[in-house]
Every structure is written in structure tokens, then in C-alpha cells.
Amino acid sequence: MLRKFKISIDGKEYLVEMEEIGGVPQPTAPVQPVAAPAAPVAQEAPQAAAPEAAPAPKTQAGADAMPSPMPGTILKVLVAVGDTVQENQPLMILEAMKMENEIVAGAAGTVTGIHVTQGEMVNPGDSLITIQ
Question: Among 31, 84, 94, 115, which has the highest number of CB atoms less than 10 A from its own CB?
Fold first, then answer.
């Protein structure tokens, strides 16, 4: 059985027919581009780069550091060394498999060390942050 799909690639729309696995093969027509409605292209003015906060310096991790639960990339660090945090307070955002995951504090305390920086890739078990 053939199924039709409309896909868009680089602003061009295409009509595609696909055969379901296990179905009976049927002849198909060649794929033809479908005209997309013309939309005016707005020119964006170049914007001045916003000043970014200096990343917190990395510190050496001890045995009491919170480990990464999965591999991923640190998108954002939400706390700084010296901050007081509550249990279940978000500490950082970890992107794994195109999903953003909040890393939260396991207990209340004070952040004594941040062992990763924004944009850094981590593996399971890598030290992320220390809370005393």
C-alpha cells in the first residue's frame, strides 16, 4: 500500500509516495516538486552581540561530586560557586538525544564547585557539581 507524504527541504515542498513494508509493490509516478507559496524574505539587520557572562572557572571534583546521569552536552549552568541551593532546585540543563534535562540538587546546601562549563560534552558518571 502506498502512502503519500509532503516534505519540505530548504523551503521547497515535495510530494513523496512510499510503500509500506510488507505491502504489494505498485508502480509510482516520479517525484515532482510542489510549488510552495511565495513568501517575502525579510532581511534581518545585524544585531550587536550581547555581552555574555564569564563562565565560572572549573574546579577539581572530589568523591562527593554529583555525577552525570547520562551522556550529553551542558547547555546552561544555572548556579554559581557560593550559591545556596534547595533540594530539587535546577542546577544546570543537560541536552541528551535532543531533549533538555534539568539536573537538580539532591540535597540543600552551598555550591562549592562546578566541574563543567557551558557547551561541554559529558559522559555518564562524569562529575558535574559539588554541593556541601
Answer: 94
pLDDT tens digits for range 103-114: 999 899 999 999
Cell 572530589 identifies what position? Answer: 62
Strand partners, 84: 110
- CA-to-CA dists, residue 98 to 41, 49, 70, 90, 127, angstroms: 29, 26, 13, 19, 21
Contact 110, 84 (CB under 8 A): yes
pLDDT score at 75: 93
**And the C-alpha cell for 79?**
548556579
| Residue-range domain boundaries for the chain | 2-34, 66-131
One of 1.20.1250.20, 3.90.380.10, 3.50.50.60, 2.40.50.100 is the CATH number of 66-131, namely 2.40.50.100
Q: What is the pLDDT of residues 15-49, one digit of tens each?
A: 888 776 665 555 555 655 655 555 555 555 555 54
